[in-house]
Amino acid sequence: xxxxxxxxxxxxxxxxxxxxxxxxxxxxxxxxxxxxxxxxxxxxxxxxxxxxxxxxxxxxxxxxxxxxxxxxxxxxxxxxxxxxxxxxxxxxxxxxxxxxxxxxxxxxxxxxxxxxxxxxxxxxxxxxxxxxxxxxxxxxxxxxxxxxxxxxxxxxxxxxxxxxxxxxxxxxxxxxxxxxxxxxxx
Length: 186
Known about the structure:
Shape: elongated
Structural class: mainly alpha
């Protein structure tokens, strides 16, 4: 039995190697190289930003990394604390003090403003101290070998932020239930 002829000449080595190689998309000039570099950097930044928003540890800044900081975030996010209402309350009080009400009403508004601002401030500071102490104590019990430096202050600062503006985004709802995943499914 004989093998049939292949019907074409054997390719030269250069031709065979040229076909095996994939085409290189090297930039034609410096302007094109910069455009490709910018696009690559944009994609990396976008990926890192999405990772930060999801709370992935490797994409977070150093101040937010680690299991102790995650515990502090979850502790604060699982509660409704006076600090998260401080800025909206102050804004409402300030706006009410600027509205030109009649004199009698204006007197009441200014009295409420001068009385409520210190009360709200004392509530926020007291709540911050409570949160800082509680988080430090619970973190020390739960993570005995971890570095707890600054975790109380971290939790207190997070408790004074408006919940929607917190970064990384909360992963637990008030009450402790996990936040439902709202990302679109692929």
